[in-house]
TrEMBL record:
Gene3D superfamilies: Homeodomain-like, Jelly Rolls. Residues 187-285 form the HTH araC/xylS-type domain. GO terms for molecular function: DNA-binding transcription factor activity; sequence-specific DNA binding. SMART domains: HTH_ARAC. It comes from the Bacteria. Keywords: DNA-binding, Transcription, Transcription regulation. This is Helix-turn-helix domain-containing protein.
Length: 289
């Protein structure tokens, strides 16, 4: 897989590069050392990012951060704009949200923090917001091509406007859709937990399954289920432990390990907190019935 370097695509003094591309049939999977945005101007196609496929059309803005893997399958009528941004463009403003999201500014874009906690690659613009974005991109492209005096400063300003517009649309979508798409995804996540509860399952595992960030899953899981992720996993483990205690002859320690608790003391403590009695007391009560 090829890795494109910023020096190959973006001039050091400009920090940003823009191209308009037409009828580009296929771009093999690759990655890069800069942030890349693709805006669909006309037509349709398929964009694949980190093993997730997106059907794209006019109004779609695709976001590839440093290190993301992606490929592009374009129809014959596909026209799009490619925007490449060197991550240190806004260094004087930046204070990273997370180690792997250093491009985002906590200070400059803190209003959008809630939306930025979601893993995202595909932002859809419609109606007036589509026209406004296209006007912004056209002005930015003309500035890049004409290279009039002060154009680097103009490109920096347009880039900030572009980022804010993208984050605003993400925030709008977040406020309109929070919980709806997650509710549809929830059965899949619950099934994943029920299949893997005996292993050291984490929020990062669910993030890989869902393409949401661990922070977003944690918050929305609690809102949708009434339990934290940890509380739900513990409940699944302890209910299975109770079933095994009543239906099998395995020793308590073996049962604890089989449901994900290698530490005997932790298993006893959590079981008693959950059921009000120890595993051994449960068996004794059952034997008297």
């Amino acid at each position: 897989m090829h890795t494109y370097q910023a020096a190959d695509c973006v001039r050091q003094d400009e920090k940003v590069a823009l191209w308009k591309i037409a009828n580009h049939e296929h771009e093999p999977e690759h990655t890069h050392s800069f942030v890349e945005l693709v805006y669909i101007l006309h037509g349709s196609g398929i964009h694949r990012i980190n093993d997730q496929s997106y059907n794209v059309r006019r109004g779609d803005l695709l976001w590839m951060n440093v290190g993301d893997r992606h490929s592009f399958y374009a129809g014959q009528d596909m026209h799009y704009m490619n925007i490449c941004i060197v991550p240190d463009l806004l260094n004087e403003h930046l204070s990273s949200l997370e180690p792997n999201q250093g491009f985002f500014s906590q200070r400059l874009f803190q209003e959008f923090r809630q939306a930025l906690q979601r893993s995202f690659h595909h932002i859809r613009f419609q109606g007036r917001s589509l026209l406004e974005l296209e006007a912004l991109l056209e002005s930015m492209y003309n500035e890049y091509v004409s290279k009039k005096i002060g154009y680097c400063a103009m490109l920096c300003g347009y880039t900030m406007l572009l980022l804010a517009s993208a984050f605003r649309k993400m925030q709008d979508n977040f406020e309109q859709e929070t919980g709806v798409d997650f509710q549809e995804l929830l059965p899949k996540l619950l099934s994943y937990i029920e299949q893997h509860y005996a292993s050291p399952i984490t929020l990062r595992d669910l993030a890989k399954e869902s393409y949401y960030s661990p922070q977003y899953i944690s918050k929305t899981f609690k809102a949708c289920c009434g339990y934290t992720f940890t509380e739900y996993v513990q409940g699944v483990r302890l209910r299975e432990a109770k079933r095994l205690l009543l239906e099998s002859g395995e020793c308590v320690v073996t049962i604890g390990r089989s449901v994900g608790y290698a530490d005997k003391s932790q298993f006893y403590r959590l079981f008693k907190q959950y059921y009000g009695i120890t595993p051994q007391q449960l068996r004794e009560q059952a034997s008297r019935l």
